[in-house]
Write a structure and sequence with these properties.
Layout (H helix, E strand, L loop, with lengths): L16 E3 L2 E3 L6 E5 L7 H14 L3 E5 L3 H12 L5 E4 L4 H9 L4 E4 L1 H4 L2 H13 L3 E7 L5 H7 L4 H17 L5 E6 L3 H14 L5 E2 L7 H17 L5 E3 L6 H14 L7 E5 L10 H11 L7 E6 L5 H5 L4 E4 L5 E6 L2 E7 L3 H18 L1
Length: about 375
């Protein structure tokens, strides 16, 4: 059982491309991305972080390639990970060629910053030869000078024009295996740019509010910005950009998708904010459960409510539910039906045990 939404989001129809083994666009699930913050030349450290990100749920991981040693390091990195790698390229076209040859599944470039069209052609040839997709990455902080002169400042129209110019460069070379992003740290600018772009083309869109900040403000900004677009059916892959451990980016990305019923992974805990009615310490209980259930991958809904005011109603809509009762006798619900009582000091062990059993059932089915 999962909470049934009052409304299903109708996603905008886009072309489907492949980033390694991961499909992006079309009817493919919205993928969650993150980026390593290790030095790419620290091969073992980068491999460890990529594998940790995959365990947390990352579908695609981006790796920075600012120099030749970094792009060549991808050869060993891609052999030791099981998730598609996007090589982050900014100015030097040779880094893109090296990254494609080294096994990158996608190249993140801004063709307008690469230089001459001949250099872009070389990158596209390397991408084709190595079955490598491309992300056209437009950012309000690095718009082309001629566009800044035309528009005077970063604005949605400038970002979209920059994107269209780069789309034409790739299309003129018969290259169509790409996705696009038009990011900004300004929520309004990013939202409007993505809206305009989504109505102007049907290529898959990579959503992000760039340089969003630390964990709390960055999560809020990303949720508002990307959540708004996702509710409108815009977006095929996402990255939450945080000044934080990259694993937190993956966690928040899934929370955004889960809240919109777009994708489910792991335990979705519905819990009350706690008040004087609580029959057990709700806040502390939820914190402990989040840690102890972080290994669960199967989509399971769990309600933890401290009293009988809202508890039974929430529990009736979740796979598992716990409602606080008098004198430490709390009611456990299974599939929305009252099942048995649990004393307060046994809540953690009982809930973890039941969730793990439910997870095992889902895996077998």
């Amino acid at each position: 059982m999962n909470i049934r939404p009052f409304r299903n989001i109708k996603r905008r129809k886009t072309k489907k491309i492949k980033v390694g083994k991961v499909e992006v666009g079309g009817d493919a699930p919205i993928s969650v991305q993150s980026m390593t913050n290790t030095l790419t030349t620290d091969i073992n450290g980068t491999i460890r972080q990529i594998n940790d990100l995959q365990k947390a749920g990352a579908d695609i991981v981006r790796v920075s390639c600012p120099d030749q040693d970094s792009s060549l390091s991808l050869k060993k990195i891609v052999k030791n990970v099981d998730v598609p790698i996007v090589a982050d390229i900014h100015f030097h076209y040779k880094r893109a060629i090296e990254a494609a040859a080294s096994g990158a599944s996608c190249l993140r470039i801004n063709p307008g910053n690469i230089g001459s069209k001949d250099r872009v052609k070389e990158i596209l040839k390397a991408a084709k030869d190595n079955n490598c997709s491309i992300r056209i990455g437009i950012n309000a902080g690095s718009l082309e000078e001629k566009l800044l002169e035309k528009y005077k400042e970063p604005c949605p129209e400038a970002l979209v024009e920059n994107a269209k110019n780069n789309i034409k460069i790739l299309e003129d070379e018969d290259f169509f295996n790409f996705k696009i992003s038009v990011k900004s740290s300004d929520i309004f600018l990013a939202i409007n740019a993505y809206r305009i772009l989504s109505s102007a083309c049907d290529y898959p869109l990579h959503l992000g509010i760039t340089e969003a900040g630390s964990l709390t403000p960055g999560s809020v900004k990303s949720s508002i910005g990307m959540g708004t677009l996702l509710m409108e059916g815009i977006g095929d892959t996402i990255r939450v950009s945080l000044s934080e451990d990259p694993i937190e980016e993956v966690k928040i990305g899934y929370e955004i998708l889960k809240s919109l019923n777009l994708r489910h992974r792991g335990v979705n805990i519905i819990s009350c904010p706690s008040c004087a009615r609580q029959a057990f310490p709700v806040i502390d209980t939820v914190k402990k459960l989040e840690k102890k259930l972080s290994h669960i991958k199967e989509p399971i809904t769990l309600s933890i409510i401290g009293c009988v005011v809202n508890g039974p109603g929430e529990a009736s809509q979740t796979d598992l539910g716990l409602t606080g009762g008098g004198q430490g006798n709390n009611m456990m619900y299974l599939s929305g039906i009252p099942h048995h009582k649990v004393v307060s000091d046994r809540i953690i062990d009982e809930v973890v045990n039941l969730v793990e059993k439910k997870s095992e059932e889902l895996r077998k089915n």
